[in-house]
Amino acid sequence: MPKPIIGNSLQQKTKLNLSLSSALQQRMTPMQLERRLREDRSAGYIEKVKRLDAGDHAENRHQTDAIIEAIRNELPDVPLENFPLGIVARCYLGNPFEVHTLDLAGMIIKHYKDFEPLPPLLEKARGLALNGGYEFIEVYIDCMRAVKVNGCISVVKI
Amino acid sequence: MSNERVISQAYVDSLARNLDILAGNVQYVAQQVVQTKQEIAAVNYNVEMLAAEFREFVDSANRQNVWQRALTRIVEIRQQIENDFGHHAEIRRHTTGILQATDISIIRKETISKCTEELMLAAPKYWLAPCLIALAAWIADNKELAEKALREALRRDDEKTSLLFALICRRAGRYNGCLAWLERYFSMQDPSCMEDNVLVVLDAFSNGIFGPDSKGLCIEKINSWIQELSRRDGFTEEQKERWASVLEAKKESMDNGEFTYLSQYSPTWPVLKDVLEMARTHDKINDFFAHIFNKDAAVYHIVDKIDEILDALVTNYDNEELPLRADEKKQQLIIEEQGNESRALARLDAEKAAFKEKVDFTQQLTNVAMNPEMFGASNATQKLAVAMSKEWIADGYGDITAKTRSKVPVNIDLSILEWQGTTKRGENEAEMLGLLNQFITDKINQLVESVKLEGNFWLSSIGGAILLLLGLTLGFNTFFLLLGAGAGAFAYIQYKNLDQRKEKIRQDMELKREKAVNILKACVAEVIDYRREYEEKDKDFEKVLEFINSLSALQYFKSRDTGARDMAI
Predict the structure, then answer these.
(1) Could you tell me which residues come within 8 angstroms of residue A140 by beta carbon, excluding any fewer than 6 positions away?
(2) Is B402 in Cβ contact with A132 (below 8 Å)?
(3) ipTM confidence
C-alpha cells in the first residue's frame, strides 16, 4: 500500500498548529493569568451565558456547546485547565427554581430548586449568585469571579 | 588490755584549752583575710577609677585632636570649595537676585547681561551658568542667545534646567511654557525610583501652581508612570489588596441588641452580623471619599511656594560639589559632636538615608491617598492621588463587597427551645408555626407518656393485697388487715398523683408553646427587617462605586487663580 504522503503532511501541519497554540498558552505566568481573567467580559459573552436561563438547553446539547464555545472565544489565550469549573446564576424560571448551573466538566446545564443542593464545587457560589446582583458567577478551583452586567469582575478567593 | 593507755583528765583539759586557743587564732587569721580582701577591693576600685579617668583623659585627648583636625579640615574644605566652586555660589545668588530685581524692574537689562556673561566664563561646567545667560537674554529679548544658552544648559543638566524654567515661566505667568517645561521634567523621572522633591513638584502641580493643564500633558505623563509600574508583576494586585484592607478596616461592629431574637435564637447570627456590618460600611466608605472631595483645599501662597522650590533647586549643590560638601558636612558634625567621631558618623548616615530616600511613585500615590497628613501632602494632592488610584480602589472595593455578598446566608437557621427551623426571608412563617406547634405537641405527648406509675405504687399495691389476704386467711387478723388497708391507701394516692403530674407537664409545655410561638414570630419579623436592611445597605455599594468611577484625575487639580476645578476635556 503506497504511503499517503500528502495526507500525512496535512495531518502533521494540524498537529503542529495545535502544539504551537498550546505552547503560547503555557507561557502565561500565574500573574498574567490572574490579570487576564480579571479583564472585563464582553457584552456578547455575557449575553450568551445569560441564555442559560432559556430553559431548553438541558435538552439541547447544541446550545450547551454554543455557550462553551462562547467561553472559549472569550478566553482564547487561557489554557483549558484554567477555565472555570462551572457557572452559577440566579434562575428566572420562577418558583420553585432558584439557581442554574453550567457544569463545564459534565457539559450539563441544570436548574435547581430551593433547598436543592448544588454540586459541592458550585454550591459556594449560590449565595453570591442570589444576593450579589451579578449576572453570573464563574467558579474556579481557587476563586469565584462575579461578573456584573457591564462586564466588570470581582474576585472572591475561596 | 595491755595495749590500752590511760590518759589523765588534766591532760585532756590542757588539750581542750589549747584547741580553744588554736580556734581563736584561726578566727583571727580569718578576720585578717577578710580585712585584706576588703582592702584589695578598695585598691581595685581605686585602680578602676584611675583607669576610667585615664581612659576618659585619653578619649578626651583623642576627641580634642579629632575636633582640632575637623576645625582645620573644614577651613581647608571651605577654601577648596571657594576656590573650585565659589563662582557657583555667586551664580546661585545672581539667579535669585535677577528674578527678584526683574520683579520690581530696578536693574537695567545691560547690567544683567554683562554680569551673567562674566559668570558664564567663570563656570565652564556648571548648569546654572548658561541658564542665567538664557534668563538674561530672555529679559533682554534676545531670542537667539537665549536659545543657544538653553541648549547648553540642557546639555549640562536637562532635568534641573527643565524644572528651573518651569518655575521661572510660572513666576512670569507664562503657563504654556511652564507646562511644556514641566512635562519635560516629568518625562525624565523614573517612576520606580523617585526623589522626594518630585513629589513636592507634583504637590504644587496638583494645587494648580503651574497653571491649568488643560491639554492634560502632565496628567498623561503621570498616567504613563502608573502604567509603567502596573506592568510589574504583583504591583497592581498589591495596590488593590492594600485598598481592600483599608476599606475593610472601616467596618464597625454592631450591637446584638439591634436584633435581640436572631442573636439569641439563630445559629446563623454570627455570619448575619458580619455581613450586615460590612453592608453598613458602604455608607462610611462613602463618607470617607465624600470628605476628601468636599473638603476645601488649603490656601496656597503660590509665589511663596514657587520661590521655595526655586530656592531649593538653585541652592542645592551640584554633583561636582557633592564629595566636598559631604566631607564638609562630616567635619561640621564632628565639630558639633565635640570630636566624637562615631556619633558624628552615625548622624551623617541617618541624614544621608533621609536625604537619599527614593520612593516608588505609585506606592507614594497610595500612601498620599490614604494618609495625606503623614506624607505632608495637601488635600489637592490627595484628591489627585485618589482619582489616579480609582481603578485599584474600585477593584479592591468590588472584591471585598463580593466576598461579603458570598457570605450572605441563603437560609437562616432558627433554634427555639430544641426546635430547629429554617427560613429564607420569613416567607414560610405559617409553615414554621405549624411545625413548631406539632413539635411541641409531640413533645407533650412524649413527656406525658413518660409519666408512669413507679415502683412504690406496685410495691404498695401488691404488698397491700398480700397483707389483706393474709389478714383474711388468719381469721380477720386486725393487724394485717390494717397494714393492707394502709398500703392500699398509699397505692391509691400514688395513682391519683399520676394525673396531676401529667396535667402539670401539659400546663408547663403549653406555656413553653406560647413562648416559643412568640419567639418564632419575633424571629421572623427580625429576618424580614434584616433582609430589608441588608438589601438597602448593599445598594449603597453601587452608589459609592459610581462615584469612584466618575473621578477623573484631570478634574481634580486646582486651577491657578480661582481655585476652581479644571473641567476641560
Answers:
(1) A37, A82, A84, A85
(2) yes
(3) 0.80
